[in-house]
Write a structure and sequence with these properties.
- The structure holds two protein chains of two kinds.
- By secondary structure, chain A is mainly β.
- Chain A is built from no helices and eleven strands.
- In chain A, strands 2, 4, 5, 6, 9, 10 and 11 form a seven-stranded mixed sheet that branches. Chain A has a four-stranded antiparallel sheet with strand order 1-3-8-7, with no helix packed on it.
- The termini of chain A are far apart.
- The mean pLDDT of chain A is 92.
- By secondary structure, chain B is mainly beta.
- The N and C termini of chain B lie far apart (38 Å).
- Chain B is globular, with a radius of gyration of 14 Å.
- Chain B has no helices and nine strands.
- In chain B, a hairpin with a 6-residue loop joins strand 3 and strand 4.
- The mean pLDDT of chain B is 90.
- Chain B has a five-stranded mixed sheet, with no helix packed on it.
- The chains are: A mainly beta, B mainly beta.
- At the A-B interface, strand 4, strand 5, strand 9 and strand 10 of A face strand 3 and strand 4 of B.
Chain lengths: 110, 113
């Protein structure tokens, strides 16, 4: 069966520090991969999606970036975090019309 | 991608049937309708998906009228554990597309004892 992993589960980082969140998928090949952010009490905002290795599409302008170095690995990064980057970050994968979400990372920027 | 409109919140009591309606007036011919459920501090979970008429699984039913401009998620005999946010999404089907989904605010369902 397919499994999606995200780490860390929670993270507290100071403003201006770098960020690296990792997502890996098991049990499937060539999935579409997605990064979402959810601010407190809000809906999910699609940040990036990838249809293959090295192929990244950005949905919103921001100081975040994404990379897909391997088929089942998706990384979300930032060189300098802002207070507004705080939120719940979710990775998801799909191979058809359904998306499956990871457990998420709760990021607090102080 | 088609925009969706759904109520911000709904209240119900245990054992009742809950129907959440979603409007998607500009749905495209190749769009599917999908519903997700999200509990606090968890990622959304797929509930049900349909293209037209009625779809039923072990969790819910999805009713889609002929014009496909709206859809209704039906949860039979809800329990307290069904308290969650429910999202209606519309997007293209097929394995060759990007699978992009645009989440709206969702409907917060509160089930009371």
């Amino acid at each position: 069966s397919q499994t999606i992993h995200q780490w860390p589960a929670t993270l507290v980082q100071p403003v201006g520090s770098p960020l690296s969140l990792e997502c890996t998928v098991e049990g499937t090949s060539n999935p579409n991969l997605y990064w979402y952010r959810q601010a407190a009490g809000r809906g999910l905002q699609l940040l990036f999606y990838s249809v293959g290795i090295g192929q990244i599409s950005s949905e919103v302008p921001q100081n975040l970036s994404a990379s897909r170095p391997q088929d089942r690995q998706f990384i979300l990064s930032s060189k300098k975090l802002l207070l507004s980057d705080s939120g719940f970050y979710l990775c998801a994968w799909s191979v058809s019309r359904e998306q499956y979400f990871g457990p998420g990372t709760r990021l607090t920027v102080t | 991608l088609a925009k969706t409109t759904q109520p911000i919140s709904m209240d119900s009591y245990e054992g009742q049937e809950v129907n959440i309606t979603c409007s998607h007036n500009n749905i495209a011919t190749n769009d599917y309708i999908t519903w997700y459920q999200q509990f606090p501090s968890q990622g959304p979970r797929f509930i049900i998906q349909g293209y037209k008429t009625k779809v039923t699984n072990e969790v819910a039913s999805l009713f889609i009228p002929a014009d496909r401009k709206s859809s209704t998620l039906s949860l039979p005999r809800v329990s307290l554990s069904d308290t969650a946010v429910y999202y209606c999404l519309v997007g293209p089907g097929g394995s060759s597309n990007t699978g992009k989904l645009i989440f709206g605010q969702g409907t917060t369902l509160q089930v009371k004892p």
